[in-house]
């Protein structure tokens, strides 16, 4: 076999030794760039969560103002097609009309009083038909005959909060109009099932004014807004800081020998 001069062997080793640090440096630069991009992305998400938190706090403040405001007249029929429920929901209203008890709808409910049903009854007013959630009844009071005192006729005045319709049923529990089984307060579907014609695109949660006989029980509206944006913002900013630190560390590391 041919003998390779020792000088050439030393030159080859030197070249290989120079390649490895260069390659390691390139990898560190790539890692640092990726970590920096991640830091920028995480920081952007943190800023977005801060903005979302400000929006949520403003929404809560506006809703609180609506709930405690003096009751107003509900929007007229002419305004129903263009009604924006984001601006109208939880508005306190007062309306007068006659309850159509024969077309009431029971919607399954889970409340602080336990499981039972919401009683949604059409209220026929001079301005049109509005579904009113008169309140909660336990299972043993679901039949109208079990709460006959609360089915009084004549003119009624209702004060309550405007609520957005709840289409498509509950979670994994669709409404079944044919079987008269309801898991959400879907105004349009209930109106079709009861042949009510043109009905307001919202319903009204009645306040705690007692009904004759004690049922239904009104005033059980739960106004809760999930507000975890600050936690998410701090998480994203922490990840941004860690990613930025990783990028700096990668650039400062000495290459392997």
Task: Please provide a written account of the structure.
The chain is α+β, with helices and mostly antiparallel strands and 257 residues long. The chain has helices at residues 6-67, 85-88, 187-193, 229-252; strands at residues 92-99, 105-111, 114-125, 128-137, 155-164, 199-206. The chain has a 5-stranded mixed β-barrel with strand order 1-3-4-6-5. A hairpin with a 2-residue loop joins strand 2 and strand 3. It starts with 5 loop residues before the first helix and ends in a 5-residue tail after the last helix.
Task: Give a quick precis of the structure.
The chain is α+β, with helices and mostly antiparallel strands and 257 residues long. 38% of the residues lie in helices and 21% in strands. It contains four helices and six strands; from the N terminus they run ααβββββαβα.
- Kindly state the number of beta strands: 6
Low-confidence stretches: none
Sequence of secondary-structure elements = HHEEEEEHEH
Average predicted local confidence, pLDDT? 87
CA-based gyration radius:
33 Å
Helix/strand-derived category reads alpha+beta
Main sheet overview? 5 strands, mixed, barrel
Number of helices, where a helix is a run of at least 4 consecutive DSSP H or I residues:
4
Pfam family, one: SURF1
Family: Belongs to the SURF1 family.
Subcellular location: Cell membrane; Membrane
Protein name: SURF1-like protein
